[in-house]
Amino acid sequence: MPLDAHRSTPLPVASALSHTSPTDPGFPLVQRRLLDLTGIDLDAYKRPQMMRRLDAILARCHLASLTALANELKPNSEVLKEFMERFTINVSECFRDKPRFEQLQRQIIPEMAKRNAALRLWSAGCSYGAEPYSLAIILREANLTRAAITATDIDPKILAAAKAGESFTSNDFRNLTPEIAKRYFTVTPTGTFRATEALRPFITFRQQNLLQPPPGKDFDIVLCRNVTIYFTEESKDQVTQHLVDALRPGGILFIGETETIHRPQRFGLTLRSTSFYEKAG
Ligand SMILES: C[S@@+](CC[C@H](N)C(=O)[O-])C[C@H]1O[C@@H](n2cnc3c(N)ncnc32)[C@H](O)[C@@H]1O
């Protein structure tokens, strides 16, 4: 999926001239409104990036202050839509970080399925679905038809796209062989690609904020990749604790290529190999 494919037109250069600050009296108003409307907590984000994104939203929405922004934050408003686009970055692709995804396919899933073929997987921060549909391909190819995937995201719009499963482009498939792409995706009249029925029964979609308790327990594998990059260390820890709470003992947490968990033993995790952590069991 090309960067910003789910977004509207690029940001005007004027944003560089704005200068919002957390001490601005409008800031707590925006923070409260956003938390109430979406569950997004601005305190969870690293300050410099977060303020830059607020500047961008002010410029794009032609608003002069954070107080004006707070007043415009209403359900279904354009300003709220802009917020969701700036704060939930939806870039993804199938089998993202291919070597690690292949390790999941060749080693981790078969090993776990020996213990119990009715595997339970959670794709946390699933964006438009490339990750959970990749998992469904693995399960389908291994004939693990009793396995189930829960796919969650905070952004209802992107979750609807994931559920529809038809906004894929050829960029999503660069890590797939042509045979697999052809087997599991069909072209739509608009030229995008749609996941076939063979993958759909595996996946249940639901909205979920990772700063809130998890959507279930006893998952065998939890994937949370490229979701918390701009979060503060404190919020990252909070998310990690929720992910660990969702795993069964001996379960695996699979994180993004550029991510690490500092002192994983704090969460009862041990690093098994790059990107994979095991919960003490
Ligand atoms: C860059 S995408 C990652 C997609 C996929 N995991 C991958 O690695 O390709 C990040 C996703 O995390 C979601 N997200 C951001 N903050 C979140 C939160 N607090 N709770 C749940 N999802 C969140 C965004 O809406 C976005 O769809």
What is the structure about, briefly put?
This protein is α/β, with parallel strands linked by helices. The protein has helices at 26-38, 47-60, 66-72, 78-87, 98-115, 130-141, 156-164, 178-184, 233-246; strands at residues 120-124, 148-153, 185-187, 193-195, 203-207, 219-224, 247-255, 269-273, 276-279. The chain is 37% helix and 16% strand.
Describe this structure in words.
- The chain has 281 residues and is α/β, with parallel strands linked by helices.
- The protein folds into two domains: 13-87; 98-279, Rossmann fold (3-Layer(aba) Sandwich), CATH 3.40.50.
- The chain contains nine helices and nine strands.
- The chain has helices at residues 26-38, 47-60, 66-72, 78-87, 98-115, 130-141, 156-164, 178-184, 233-246, and strands spanning 120-124, 148-153, 185-187, 193-195, 203-207, 219-224, 247-255, 269-273, 276-279.
- The strands form two sheets. Strands 5-2-1-6-7-9-8 form a seven-stranded mixed sheet.
- Strand 8 and strand 9 (276-279) form a beta hairpin.
- The longest helix has 18 residues, at 98-115.
- Mean pLDDT is 92; it is low at 1-17.
- The structure holds S-adenosylmethionine.
